[in-house]
Amino acid sequence: MRNFISIDxxxxxxxxxxxxxxxxxFREVVFLDSNNSNEPYSDFDYLLAVDAFTSIQTxxxxxxxxxxxxxxxxxxxxxxxxxxxxxxxxxxxxxxNTDELAFPDLFFFQPQKIFKIKGNVLELYYLNNCDDEWxxxxxxxxxxxxxxxxxxxxxxxxQRISEEEYLLKVSDMLKHIQSGDxxxxxxxxxxxxxxxxINPLQLYxxxxxxSTPPFAVFFKNNKHYALGASxxxxxxxxxxxxxxxxxxxxxxxxxDTVADQNARIALQSNLKERAENIxxxxxxxxxxxxxxxxxxxxxxxxxxIYTYKQVHQMISTVxxxxxxxxxxxxxxxxxxxxxxxTGAPKISAMKIIEALExxxxxxxxxxIGYFTPTGDFDFNVVIRTILYNxxxxxxxxxxxxxxxxxxxPQAEYEECLxxxxxxxxxxxxxxxxx
Length: 434
Description:
Mean pLDDT: 94
Number of strands: 20
Helix content: 25-40%
């Protein structure tokens, strides 16, 4: 069904940028970049899938059943996304908040052309109907002249929830915690711009350059774009092994080496941040146990500190084993949405989140990734991501933080602004620090 070609790349520091620029001609694009991550479960430096041969697009109703059927029929690589609101397909929940982005709840496509790069080795996976095009495509890519464009209009970012409203809503959430309704919940707010005309490729390059995260993504489905600088993996399957790496705990980086090291140490020992992380680890362990073989759920890393260009993050790694007969889609469905973006207990947290937030999350806090023909998969968590509906000229990004009994509303608000900084920097640089 696919023709496989392996090529040693000549030294070309611009090949990645040329490849992504070349991809813009296609209606469907998924570009995943590990930014040369040293994390142990990274399979590639970067990966590109373009040009749908088949695709599936659906709302939340029966979404996982439809995805299972589609994956079973293609028996191939498929790339796409799951929105946060597929929670309504997993549980009896609703999503009734404002939705200006209007992305489909689920979208996957079977690409005609896949480029996978590790080191200086390029692997091509072309469908048989177009396998005579790879030499021509490579020549086009190599001969491309890189260009830069700038957004043609000023982007005026607005905040969906004001600081005053945010503080009141977090106080309401703390009352739920004190009443025993929940132990922790991830509360988010949206920043948005209307009548925005942007250059998605340029903004993605700028955002990725600021953060260089291990789960960066450029996604395009016709007029829908996701420009992501996510540091977080949601879920990965390798053979029968399942890996989840939830993030809870963030600290600002400093130019001064001593101050930066002190920030890292302070995050490592912060009781509130550790409590947040450990609660989500317990939730993830419970989610993985639904499909795991007996006794196979383990915590490989607990509250480890990972350092990125802008922030330090507290990350844990939880793993399990599944039977060879376990459906890959079923593994995702049984853990969805990811614990780091919901709370504990999970269903109660999602209900309270829906009541207090004012925007439908949509693709934000969902997942983008792929399935392989052999039943493996890898998905990120859609955070630190700019979403764009080109037809509506609507730009959006959301940020959030985990609220626990130890949370201080003002400190949580400041954490949200820290997480928003990279997106504001590329969209509205003159106000990025305000």
